[in-house]
Amino acid sequence: MNTEEKKENLEPLQEEDNIVETNSTSEEESNLEENVGETKEDLADSQEKKIAELNDKVLRLLAENQNIRKNQEKEKEDILKYGSFNFASQILNLTDNLDRAFSIFKNNEKFKDKEFLEITNGIELIEKELLNTLEKNSITYIDCLNKKFDPNYHQALSEIDSEKEPGTVVEEVQKGYMLHDRLLRPSLVNVAKSSKKEEKK
Amino acid sequence: MSKIIGIDLGTTNSCVAVMDGATPKVLENLEGARTTPSVVAFTDSEEKLVGTSAKRQGVTNSENTFFAVKRLIGRKFDGDAVKKDIQGLPYKIIKADNGDAWVESRGKKYSPSQISAFVLQKMKETAEKYLGSEVKEAVITVPAYFNDSQRQATKDAGKIAGLEVKRIINEPTAAALAYGLDKKNAKTVAVYDLGGGTFDVSILELGDGVFEVKSTNGDTTLGGEDFDAHIVDYLAMNLKKTMPLI
Fold first, then answer.
1. What does pTM read for this prediction?
2. Chain B nearest C-alpha distance from A89 (Å)
């Protein structure tokens, strides 16, 4: 009881005597409070910032992940579609030579006799079957003779004099093929000399 | 977020790659090839061709098919190097107003930077197709012996192609880095670069994690194309011997 009374006595005393002090204390206190307030705000701020950063990072990584998956799918598709590219190129070397051998055989007078008819028929069947097999594997022949020279499908070996319109494919030196929509190998061709050069003559 | 691409803008062929995580990945162009010929052509019908298609019609359009433009980039028309090259190149090389070596086709004039920009554009498109997003930044390599003018002209080519060129790096340095030599305690490294049209040798020294080019040499007119030509000549010679009627 005494202490309480004393306290009551003390407090007003304190207030009176220490008005300035109290004020400054409250200033200090309010400063402190502000400081504590700032620090609390700062902490909340920096935490928010960090959360935002981490969120951003997560989103980016997720997006990259998706991209990687998309790319892998596309690569798989491409491998299935164009995976036979190298094999197809090598097979075409064989078909080239078979073509040459067959045409020599077919054009040779010696083999026009009846006794060779079976062989000639057989050869024609094989040629058809060859073309069919290629097509079944999405390897298609590029028809280039007498067409306009197109560097996306043809490769010009030389320019030659010709009555045909300049820029036309006049000779096919080697057959060109597509694998699906991709060029497997270009047609090797000779092109009719272009108009500018005709004028120069 | 756009990825930065790395481009090897070569004399004969160019190549583009991106970092796939921690591994570099060389990208295939639309035709499925990992390198694209550094060739640009302007056809009769005012069409612009870049890469393999440009190369395929070179024979029929030699005056308007630009290749090996790297030999001219950043160089003066009156310089020794260009004078020598003019003799071997079938297209028209002219002197620009500022004295630089430019090229001309069907009445239009182009700087080597512009021609190279067409190639860089194609490499940019290749990367964009793979990444599915726009590419804005690139790193381009140049020969170690390229001077400031040539390096700046290469940077300009990138800018024209719509790329911010973050760095121009020396080709042998890039090669050394690709093989991780900076992490393998290598001290002195010799890099042999036998390309399509040039043969470059560089001696690099690794110090403080940085490669310094100590010296360069080589043959600027020796490359794979010359080997091809010799093989063709050899075959033709032998064919003539065995089949004299040809």
1. 0.81
2. 14
